[in-house]
Design a protein that fits this description.
The chain is of the alpha/beta class. About 30% of the residues lie in helices and about 15% in strands. The strands form four sheets. It has a seven-stranded mixed β-sheet with strand order 3-2-7-17-18-19-20. A seven-stranded parallel β-sheet has the order 8-11-12-13-14-15-16. The structure holds N-(aminocarbonyl)-beta-alanine (URP) and zinc ion (2 copies).
Amino acid sequence: MWCGGSWPCANAAVEPVKAAEQVADSLEQEIVPRDSIERNGQSAQNRLLIKGGRVVNDDMMQDADVYIEDGIIKQVGTNLHTPGGTRVIEAKGHLVMPGGIDTHTHMQMPFMGTQAIDDFYTGTRAALAGGTTMIMDFALPQRGESLIEAFHRWRTWADPKVCCDYAIHVGVTWWSDKVAQEMEELTNEQGVNSFKMFMAYKDTWQLNDEELLESFKRCKELGALAQVHAENGDVIKENSKKLLELGITGPEGHEMSRPEEVEAEATNRACVLANQVNCPLYVVHVMSKSAADVVSSKRKQGHVVFGEPIAASLGTDGTHHYHKCWRHAAGHVMGPPLRPDSSTPKYLMDLLANGDLQTTGTDNCTFSAAQKALGKDDFTKIPNGVNGVEDRMSVIWEKGVVSGKMDPCRFVAVTSTNAAKIFNIYPKKGRIAVGSDADIVVWNPHATRVISAKTHHQAVDFNIFEGMEVHGIAEFVVCHGRVVVEEGEVRAISGMGKYVPTPVFNPHVYGRLEERERANAPCKVERAPYEGPVAQLNGQGMQEGGIIPVQQETFYTRGPTRSGGVNLHDSSFHVSGRQRDDDLLPRTSIKLVTSPNSSSSLLGTFW
Ligand code: URP
Ligand code: ZN
Ligand code: ZN
């Protein structure tokens, strides 16, 4: 039992604790190999008709049938002519929408001494179960490690296991000329168009402002999209130390160490730095009202910036860090943290619904009870991460559409189309249209289910949405024209997913950048040259920015008296503390001269 406290912990009865060392074994799961595609009786040539549903795109809804061949949508309309032998899915009363795109996952990621328990098989299978047909994962090199090697390592992990399509963002976790060169190779040769920079995880992945600027400049040159994990890592380090000294070692310390303003400050700083070098910016995992407000207000100022809340920040909150059950509280630990305020999810959903925020990811990065327990005596050692890849679509439908905040078109925009546009894979992805990939979810908007770790498809033994009743079920999911979820039953095939290259210089992101740069370019004022006297700097040069080097400080700012002596109106000391006679032989005594109006010896010293 996890719960020793008085609060009931719905996750309590899920699964016996796995020892941390068992985690590696559990990643070796039984998976359906690619060669079972034939056994499964389907082929990429399959013809499929989705009949009688309401097709929903981000900009329109229409009652239409969708005909698919060879994994591509071939016809959308009514009274379609289809060849004999075509399989028909009856979709009356259902919505036919583009499959979801989860913009932010970490499958089997090595992190904080362990490895995320949902790998590319269990994670993408769970994604399909929930109606997501593509994920975007992060290849994150260790400090000093080649970005290209990290990228290939991720591909080697993903390719044999993925059940749905995937793209890769690459982390710029350190800075050097080599990193800059490798970024170019990744964009030119490997289909990477987004790089994530960390402002947190001090001493491992955190970049300082100068490195951030360099990486933003490089993204701009390459036509890539800069992404930031926006939290002030220096403040977090300092706060964590203080809290541990106070004896606060539990999961609540994680949240206390990084309050909302720590996220908002970094979000603002990232926006300013990116804007200064005209680099488009994408803020991953927006977790707080004030960080969301920063993104929203910078957009209003014309910055090219996008914000990604996640299923967790939209569907639950950080009051759980204060749960009496340690495992329950630790199960919610992620960075930036969920905010301990029940109005935050609704606020973020309003911004998402109204266009201030654009996409939704999950930051799916799951750890079992035993893995989380690596931090049982020290919250800084609790592996950061939560689930979401399976439940994102349902949670957003429930909290966004059922709540009346967004219509089905906006739902499609924030769960799929906007991601496809921002990462330059639209309309191949994110649209039901002729020529698009047949990645489709047949959604029953009225059916309900109760989310639970006991029934979910993920490998992790905990679910942050435990007990939540949601409307909206992915009854059929079609990925590359293949039916991979059938009346709720998942028929995923490992290795069936494909790597999706993301090209640079995306018109949806860079479209207005050149003009914006031109319009905002600094303009020289034409004037007659100054011809008056110019002060002498005593032969000393001036540094960049007009700073006169410290060692050039001089006491003599006034000319000598007529007899050649020191002008007594000159100061006898310098702001640095140096005195006029510091270079003379040591004095045997110091004469104090007091102010005529004061008995204060301190004041007298300086008078
Ligand atoms: O807690 C989190 N977010 N874990 C994954 C790593 C990251 O920062 O995205
Ligand atoms: Zn992050
Ligand atoms: Zn992440």
